[in-house]
Structure to design on (732 residues):
């Protein structure tokens, strides 16, 4: 078994928010029913007590626990710890001071005997208790402890944890005096510190003294809506908001994901990211299939970098040195015992102990060296390495010998079957000298700048040994040509396909829409319908170098556009609305032009003319600027107007036919003058205006007697004509 050491690095970059930021890292609330309607409540709060540096470099010690009313202060200046009891309608039934507090340091035990937690951190557990009477309620109670703030540097929530509080809550079911129910109580500490890339197997189950059925879920932690001490949130309690991609069932990075067994409460998964994460576990309590209560445990989980206690050592192969003495050095931090076996099969005396040892081998060869490192009987690790002692070297050189020009910058060479030491000098030489280099046993993406014959040579020097290997290389010339441009045209046409500016012969394979078409250098296709074709060419040169080029939607044959539209009327009155409706087909562009200057791209629209005359409406359509068509419809625009005067009116005060005025249509303005039979003007409406009306009175305001009167009128039509009319009207 390997011994793991956890190095804990806590970086706090937040300043203390307020005087009593509590650095809460977890908690839960439980209750037990006593006799005579009494309830004993137990609140457990976990707090970080490790001092840290604020942004000014000042050492800050997190505030202690809330105080107990009426007893010596635990944390001067901190509020008193209170329990909030709400009715089911969220009204406050009672706010109760806790009566006792027990504080103890939390001993975070290693997951197994080979894990050691190393680092400066401090967790304290505060247990508050109070016993209060609660009358039986037909609706039950909501009970909670609410307090700001959480520990800083949390990775998985949106809000600043230093300004986010905690709510530890539970429920008392209706009619509990009869039920006598006590809620579940978590049995073990929450997993506050875990190792990255180490499988979790933590027991987060609870014990129910009533023997009720319990079910477990990962849920969203609750948060206070205010960081002010004494604030009481009602149900449903506020929830924290997770950073994306975190969620209640995915609170941290893990593979396999974190999961809690709903029946056993066992948490499993393997954390894969260092950080600090807020997690919540809900336990639901059922009796005879009826939900009695929900209790939430809320805790912060720190994921650390755990480094394994692994046996390892350094040794150097001996090549071309003339001797067989090898120095070994163990690479292990905290081993209590080191035992070496140098793999010499000719003796049993090839063992040693200690961190730095030496062994003299009898001859060249390969030897398996074993190191056993132990930190007690339960923590043992073994490593075996092969070392080579040899006074000659050998190797093979592999790589591409013929390469096509398109791949000239992808050449790779590798030294294989290596029989030389790690300290040997490796010299690479190329026919193109600017590629020469020293060092690696493999070169990738070597780029020759000219075609033709080349070579690569490797020379290895290892102490007194030297050996060279060489590979000839041929690189074909590049293939150059101009691929046909994309084509878009109307149907019923021929298309010639051929390469241009080709620098040497090729073997051709032409494909249209992935279907082989011809091996000829060029070919013609004829299209009589709309279609879209892909064009692909696979070509091979005289050295067997093959490549391909493909153009998607290379040729687009359009169906000829067909212009067509209708109008609701061709004999139109001025200012009369008429409908224009598109009926054209197979177009990508459509435009209406009306000879009064109007242009529109709408499929259907309403139009009117403001000036009479002869007009035309033209529709232009095309397909991507090609295959155009046009249609024209002529229309005639006329003007209708009228002015009609009544021949009598009765200004008698009965609000019927009280005034004399004309009915007009398309008349902009008119004058109206009225004379009695002696030629005296009784009404003067000589100014043009939209409406005149005579009430039967003369210009002095006197109502005239029944008589026949003459009227004279000039009027202007809507198209600007000035006309006259006259007649007689009877005043009755």
């Amino acid at each position: 078994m390997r011994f793991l050491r956890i190095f804990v690095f806590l970086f706090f970059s937040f300043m203390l928010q307020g005087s009593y930021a509590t650095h809460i890292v977890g908690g839960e609330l439980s209750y037990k029913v006593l006799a005579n309607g009494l309830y004993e409540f137990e609140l457990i709060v976990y707090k970080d007590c490790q001092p840290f540096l604020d942004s000014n470099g000042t050492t800050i010690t997190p505030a202690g626990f809330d105080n107990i009313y009426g007893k010596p202060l635990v944390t001067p200046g901190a509020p008193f710890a209170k329990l909030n009891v709400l009715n089911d309608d969220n009204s406050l039934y009672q706010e109760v001071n806790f009566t006792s507090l027990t504080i103890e340091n939390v001993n975070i035990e290693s997951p197994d005997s080979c894990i050691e937690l190393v680092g400066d951190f401090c967790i304290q557990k505060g247990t508050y208790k109070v016993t209060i009477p609660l009358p039986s309620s037909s609706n039950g109670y909501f009970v909670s402890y609410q307090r700001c703030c959480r520990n800083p540097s949390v990775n998985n929530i949106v809000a600043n944890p230093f300004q986010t509080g905690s709510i530890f809550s539970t429920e008392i079911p209706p009619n509990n005096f009869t039920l006598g129910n006590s809620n579940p109580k978590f049995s073990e500490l929450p997993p506050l510190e875990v190792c990255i890339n180490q499988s979790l197997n933590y027991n987060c189950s609870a014990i129910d003294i009533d023997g009720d059925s319990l079910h477990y879920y990962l849920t969203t932690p609750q948060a206070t809506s205010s960081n002010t001490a004494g604030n009481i949130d009602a149900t449903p309690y506020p929830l924290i908001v997770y950073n994306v991609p975190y969620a209640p069932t995915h609170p941290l990075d893990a593979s396999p994901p974190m999961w809690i067994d709903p029946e056993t409460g066992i948490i499993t998964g393997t954390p894969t990211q260092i950080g600090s994460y807020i997690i919540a576990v809900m336990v639901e309590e059922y009796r005879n299939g009826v939900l009695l209560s929900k209790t939430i445990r809320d805790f912060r989980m720190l994921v650390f970098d755990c480094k394994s206690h692994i046996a390892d050592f350094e040794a150097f192969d001996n090549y071309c040195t003339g001797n067989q003495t090898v120095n070994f050095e163990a690479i292990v931090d905290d081993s209590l015992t080191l035992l070496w076996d140098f793999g010499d099969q000719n003796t049993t005396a090839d063992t040693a102990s200690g961190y730095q040892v030496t062994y003299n081998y009898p001859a060249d060869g390969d030897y398996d060296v074993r190191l056993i490192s132990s930190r007690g009987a339960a923590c043992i690790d073994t490593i075996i390495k092969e070392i080579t002692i040899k006074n000659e070297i050998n190797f093979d050189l592999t790589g591409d010998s013929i390469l096509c020009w398109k791949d000239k910058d992808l050449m790779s060479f590798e030294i294989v079957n290596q029989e030389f030491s790690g300290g040997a000098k490796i010299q690479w030489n190329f026919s193109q000298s600017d590629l020469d280099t020293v060092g690696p046993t493999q070169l990738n993406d070597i780029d020759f700048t000219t075609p033709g014959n080349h070579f690569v040579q490797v020379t290895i020097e290892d102490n007194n040994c030297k050996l060279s290997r060489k590979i000839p290389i041929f690189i074909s010339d590049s293939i150059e040509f101009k691929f046909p441009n994309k084509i878009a045209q109307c149907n019923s046409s021929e298309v010639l396909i051929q390469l241009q500016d080709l620098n040497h012969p090729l073997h051709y394979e032409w494909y249209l829409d992935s279907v082989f078409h011809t091996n000829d250098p060029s070919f013609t296709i004829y299209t009589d319908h709309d279609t879209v074709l892909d064009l692909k060419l696979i070509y091979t040169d005289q050295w067997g170098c093959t490549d391909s080029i493909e153009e998607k939607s290379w040729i687009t044959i359009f169906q000829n556009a067909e212009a067509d539209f209708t109008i609701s009327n061709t004999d139109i009155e001025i200012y009369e609305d008429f409908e224009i409706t598109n009926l054209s087909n197979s177009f990508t562009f459509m435009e209406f032009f009306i000879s009064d200057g109007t242009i529109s791209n709408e499929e259907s629209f309403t139009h009117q003319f403001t000036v009479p005359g002869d007009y035309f409406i033209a529709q232009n359509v095309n397909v991507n600027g090609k295959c155009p068509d046009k249609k024209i419809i002529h229309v005639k625009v006329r003007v209708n107007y009228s002015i009609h005067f009544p021949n009598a009116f009765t200004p008698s005060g009965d609000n019927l036919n009280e005034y004399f005025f004309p009915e007009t249509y398309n008349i902009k303005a008119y004058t109206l003058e009225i004379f009695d039979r002696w030629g005296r003007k009784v009404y003067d409406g000589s100014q043009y205006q939209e409406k005149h009306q005579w009430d039967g009175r003369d210009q002095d305001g006197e109502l005239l007697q029944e008589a026949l009167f003459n009227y004279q009128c000039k009027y202007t039509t809507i198209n600007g004509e000035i006309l006259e009319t006259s007649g007689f009207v009877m005043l009755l």
